[in-house]
């Protein structure tokens, strides 16, 4: 895994903001479960089984399953780009974009009030998008960059602060962006409910466009001089 570049950090910040928005979307509007918090969803799945609540257990289990499928797709896209020596952020972000914009268009078509089965499909799709994002970021931007899985990030930061006296200010920035994304979506969902699904898709689009712009500015690899006969 390579070290993250400055452009990767900017993209990761936008993706963290969007992850907060998408998790708020799942919890508020798509069934009361999260889209990328596998630990919480696994616990909810167990709660659903223990309380004989098939709806809660089913939605949480679906979110976990779709997250895994999305992670497989995002990881495959990022590794394929890495082996091809292309811009590593572009492929998996495009896959995530497709998933988010499909759901956003569907949401707009229902006026922000999808039926029960449609809401369930939307939840699975955005959970897959979050799995795609997390796996792609891990491969493409390095293992120390994360945009939605903050438990491990916070734990590592606390350990390093205590054992090495090395504070991790970037962790506070990341957590703050996730919270801000959730706050922003909550406000949009309250006041502009019919178009709320567009909000996280726009944030990921900005990250994707920024990555493509940075790629276009990077100098190409120098070519080896031709051998003389």
TrEMBL record:
InterPro entries: DUF1275
UniProt KW keywords: Membrane, Transmembrane, Transmembrane helix
Bilayer-spanning residue ranges: 12-35, 55-79, 91-109, 121-141, 171-188, 194-211
Transmembrane in keyword set: yes
Pfam families in the record: DUF1275 (PF06912)
Superkingdom, natural source: Bacteria
Protein name per Swiss-Prot or TrEMBL: YoaK family protein
Source species: Streptomyces lienomycini
Lineage: Bacteria, Bacillati, Actinomycetota, Actinomycetes, Kitasatosporales
